[in-house]
Amino acid sequence: MIYEEPRFMPGGDRYMLIEFGNEMNLELNFMAQGLASAIEQGKTKGVIETAPSFASMLIHYDPDRIDFKDLTREMKSLIGSLGSSDDIELDSRLFYFPTCYLDPWTRECIEDYCNKITKKKYDPDFVAEINGLKDAQQLVRVHSGTEYWVASLGFWPGLPFMMALDPRCVITAPKYNPPRTWTPQGTVGMGGASTAIYPVATPGGYQIFARIPIPIWDTTKRFPQFEKSICLFRPGDRVKFVPVSPEEFLHVEAQVKDGSYNYNVVEYQRFSVRNYKTWIATLDKTQRF
What global pTM score does this model have? Predict the structure, then answer.
């Protein structure tokens, strides 16, 4: 649900947590990102950084410049001036990622988990089954059939938590229990209704079924997309997964290694919440690809 009034809570002596609701949905994230954009444009006194999430936003502020009470008053006033979420428009880059679905690397990871920790069904088959899809091939069609909205970044620097923009492509999956001890870099997986990409090889608990060959964070800043940040994404970016074969994956991976790869990204677009809502109102949300 969306709260009638946002809730303002301290997160230590330098952070404020603003909650807009208690569920994970795009409407609440649009509100969080709209507020974050307004704070940046208005250069609110004492605010150091904002971190929008699915249904909330964390504000890092300097208590020597503004206290919690005054910041709360400032945020209430700013939220009141924003109007309906339908009016929100955000800069939104669109990234196209070559993506190897049902790949050998995540299969090896799943098999290693089954051999060392506990038996489980092959992740793509499991996710397809619990979402009423015919098989893993339909999972690929459905998952790759939409753009994904970068709702927040976290868990590991640069890791995007993303939501499907096309409601016909929304699928859900429970996390591993217990989690894996490792996950290949570039792995694409799901937990709940969120899709994520693992920036590096780490433990993890999402159901996994694909892999991308290009970096989404880079401390060495080898590519121009990392000039301003070691993390590729910003909240409000979008991602389109483009299915490729293992051979194509290896080709792109070689380009990344020698530094010749060019990111396929559309830089200039604006995302209109009103236009988005108008579009989804025309869809039959029970359809699948």
Answer: 0.88
Cβ within 8 Å of residue 280, ≥6 positions away: 166, 167
Amino acid code (one letter) for 106:
T
Q: Which residue's structure tokens are 């947590």?
A: 17
- Tell me the pairing of strands 270-272 and 238-243: unpaired
The pLDDT value recorded for residue 254 is 98
Query: Could you state, in chain order, the average pLDDT of each consecutive group of 10 residues for the chain (289 residues)?
Result: 86 92 80 87 89 88 94 90 81 96 97 96 98 97 96 86 95 95 96 94 96 95 93 93 98 97 94 92 90
The span from the CA of 227 to the CA of 223, in Å, is: 7
Within 13 Å and on the Cβ side, how many CA atoms surround 10? 9
Q: CB-based burial of residue 234 (10 Å sphere; 0-12 exposed, 13-18 middle, 19+ buried)?
A: middle
Q: Name the DSSP class of 155.
A: S
Q: What are the DSSP E strand ranges found in 102-233?
A: 147-153, 160-164, 187-191, 194-197, 207-211
Residue closest to 76 by CA, chosen among 1, 16, 26: 16
Task: Give CA torsion, residues 228, 230, 232, 237, to 10 deg.
Answer: -60
Per-residue pLDDT at 156 = 81
Q: What are phi and psi of 8, to 5 degrees?
A: -110, 120
Of 265, 118, 110, which Cα lies nearest the Cα of 184?
110
CA 144/CA 99 separation, integer angstroms:
9
Q: CA-CA distance, 260 to 264, in Å (whole number)?
A: 13
3-class secondary structure, 54: coil
Which among 261, 165, 250, 166 has a CA at the least distance from the CA of 216? 261
- Tokens 């290694």 label which residue? 257
